[in-house]
Known about the structure:
The complex is a heterodimer. Chain A is mainly alpha-helical. Chain A has helices at residues 13-21, 32-38, 42-48, 51-71, 75-93, 95-111, 121-127; one strand at 119-120. Chain A has seven helices and one strand; from the N terminus they run H-H-H-H-H-H-E-H. The radius of gyration of chain A is 19 Å and the shape is elongated. By secondary structure, chain B is mainly alpha-helical. Strand 1 (119-120) of chain A pairs antiparallel with strand 1 (6-7) of chain B, so a sheet runs across the interface.
Amino acid sequence: MTATAHLPEPHRSSAADSDVAGLEPSPEWAGDAIAAERFGSPEAIRAALLPEQVSEFDAAFDAALTAARQTLHLDQLRHVLHMWRRMALMTERDPDGHRQMLATAAEVQRTGQPRPGSVPWSELKAELSL
Amino acid sequence: MSYTLDIDPAARARIQALPPAGVDALAEAMTVLSLVPERGEPINAANPMAGSTS
Lengths: 130, 54
């Protein structure tokens, strides 16, 4: 008895497309459809990221591939690509802003303190008459 | 229990430049964040606190 082997076909875009197409069964973010169109492969996602984001994407993608091999389920892989596709789109739309956001987050995480000049949201909310 | 959200000067400037509809949507998101910040989905589940790799 023989089993049919479903080997990956990296040069067949149709195979890749069909796998990627199932990743967004119900878009939760307005940019999901655009992100899915723009970043149909892990390679495209990676290319859109900032250099400082790449190693984190590589680690998440690698862990998801390992999980897929071990569990024979693609859920985690789909989830990772879905989330990083969003990150790729946000990065592509405003690379400087995204770089600044990452630096700010890293600084706040490192110091454990709000950045100088920060105000509580309640104060800004009042200022905006909300 | 609710959390205090601190808005840094760069974010403040961007928020002040938002159109009214954007500000309203952001206010709703801020309300959710101040009440249940843990409900958000991290980009990297293996490192949910990550702001960057640095």
